[in-house]
Amino acid sequence: MISGLVFSDGALREEFLDRFSQLAEAAQAQLDGLERLEGGLTVDDAQEVAVGIDEGTYRLGDRPGLEAIIERFTRPVHLVQRGTFTDPPDAFPDSEEIGRRLEQARALLDQAIPSVGRIDVRNHRLDWLGTGWMVAPDLVVTNRHVAAEFAHMKDGAFVFRQYSGLPPVRVDVDWRHEHRIPEESRFRIEEVLWIEPENSVDVAVLRVAEHSYENEPRPRAIELASRVEFEQARVGAWVAVVGYPAYDSRNDAADQQRIFDGIYNYKRLAPGQVTALVQQDLLHHDATTLGGNSGSVLIDLASGKAFGLHFGGIEGDRNFAVQAPRLRQILDQLS
């Protein structure tokens, strides 16, 4: 996703322009002729678009091939394997500036990554529904629209749904499910503790078993950023979204193939920036996400704390997340 902040980092913009010939050459095989129809690519074109994006005068959609290069270079999506992030799987050149930011935060990210899992289901029309993460020693947070697929209110309590005469839906969270890594770490979701109402934020809280089916202990909880920490970081803060992007028929198929290299449903890490704060509840960000990212965590690269809970987005426009302090309010109300 290309926001007005992608070139607010002067070093990243300088790197993009310095390496543009290399990027354009690497992109030709992936762009299906988009830029050939636009009359080719030059560094002057890249400079004009980069300045326009930074100044807010560029209209997205005018140069789709060039935009594809910008998005892949400035908002990549990394595979997660063995509990840490690796390089994107394609051969496209990676930004050294983005890589430097991620490497500086690697120790913090490696503490959080194992606490993010995929929400798998049985006795349901789907195999899995989204992402969740440890928000307290025995609690997983995800989205309301994810939890509503397997639970609902009945007689004053949340119960697991039962479809078409099948047994109640069984819900597990797998803390791994990494590309080409066979190991699992599956924990039973024992209880749906809370689902926020429709007129509130997109949040649900689940109680997870103390041990996995293989008797492993639960992963650690990811600490939530406080209101003070959150407001000190403000717009422009660098974050990493950790979750499980799935192929999304609502988004452009060619763009998804270029960015995700045809690999979906596995744990990924996507860097980006906070682009707006919406009152006391929500934020916008520009990390690259897809539908399965519902319930993903936004990790602040500076502190390693959770900044928010991703719940959706508009392709080419913005992504949405619930602010961490709002999550804290919900947890406090449940305690």
UniProtKB/TrEMBL annotation:
Indicate what this protein is called per its UniProt record. Answer: V8-like Glu-specific endopeptidase
Question: Which SUPFAM superfamilies does its entry note?
Answer: Trypsin-like serine proteases
Q: Which organism is it from?
A: Geodermatophilus dictyosporus
Per the UniProt record, which residue ranges are transmembrane? none
**Domain of life according to the entry:** Bacteria
Q: What InterPro entries does the annotation carry?
A: Peptidase_S1_PA, Peptidase_S1_PA_chymotrypsin
